[in-house]
Amino acid sequence: MAKSRKSRRGAPAASVAETVDGGLAELIPDPDRARAWTLLLDGAPQSHVDLDDPAFLSFEYQRRLGHVIDLVAPPGRPVRAVHLGGGALTLARYVAATRPRSTQQVVERDAPLVELVRRELPLDRNARIRVRSTDAREGLAKVPDGWADLVVADVFSGARTPAHLTSTEFLDEVRRALAPGGWYAANLADGPPLTHLRGQIATAAARFAELALVADPTVLRGRRFGNAVLVAADQPLPVADLTRRAASDPHPGRVEHGRALRDFTGGATPVTDATAVDSPAPPASAFT
């Protein structure tokens, strides 16, 4: 285990590194924001947290999930949220900051990572966030029926989403946990020829009536590896609002829905537990 403590008060913060279950976790100080940190696991960026401004979302995909959080209910209204995958608890902090009095459950399998984040990047004492250190699907199974207004899936192991979190059976558990009118949002990562992404859209379409996908246009065209945020619900989604927000991001995103999104799947079939595989590994160039 390697570790470097923060410098004395008034001096620039030093990085922190510890071995956790998922590999080498590093907290790197943001040179542009006084109390902000980036979490890396084995060199792959995972999360960014600004302790002074938890409503600030630096990563592109987290900004898009932030748009979903903003639109899932009227502004400021508390929600019940389940986060599958915790990282530095960025999105849970965002919900707590933008929707005070929300109740949240975070499921993060890597207990040493949770301990590191809690110690070095402590949560607001008023945040109603419960963290469980267990497998995402096992943790989801413990959520009461109809409890959640929002379920967010952002789970990566070795930069890949585990197979058992990509199937229709997994989405059956998501649906069970969702309240009537609740939303599901997933951070998906893929590159050309986008086989995994197309299969995940087909899988969600087999369980939800309404879908929308937000991604960089170059990712959707299969020109590079990247993230896409899939949103699913059983009632119409605020596609126009989501489109405006994604278009205004520093790296503008495109929203696909309806017929265009169905056509995008290219005939892909739903994934089941019997056919599921891990998402593809990103190329080495993805983090350079």
Description:
The chain is of the alpha/beta class. Helix content is 27%, strand content 27%. The chain has helices at residues 60-71, 90-98, 111-120, 136-141, 168-177, 195-205, 217-220, 239-247, 258-264; strands spanning 16-20, 23-29, 36-41, 44-50, 80-84, 103-107, 128-132, 148-153, 178-190, 210-215, 226-233, 254-257. The strands form two sheets. The chain has an eight-stranded mixed sheet, sandwiched between helices. Strand 6, helix 3 and strand 7 (128-132) form a beta-alpha-beta unit. Helix 1 packs parallel to helix 2 (90-98) and helix 1 runs antiparallel to helix 8 (239-247). The longest helix has 12 residues, at 60-71. It is globular and about 50 Å long. The model is unreliable at 1-10 (pLDDT under 50).
Contiguous uncertain segments of 5+ residues: 1-10
Mean pLDDT reading: 94
Percentage of helical residues? Answer: 25-40%
| Number of separate strands | 12
Topology:
Elements: E1 16-20, E2 23-29, E3 36-41, E4 44-50, H1 60-71, E5 80-84, H2 90-98, E6 103-107, H3 111-120, E7 128-132, H4 136-141, E8 148-153, H5 168-177, E9 178-190, H6 195-205, E10 210-215, H7 217-220, E11 226-233, H8 239-247, E12 254-257, H9 258-264
Parallel strand pairs: 5-6, 5-8, 6-7, 8-9
Antiparallel strand pairs: 1-2, 2-3, 3-4, 9-11, 10-11, 10-12
Helix pairs in contact: 1-2, 1-8
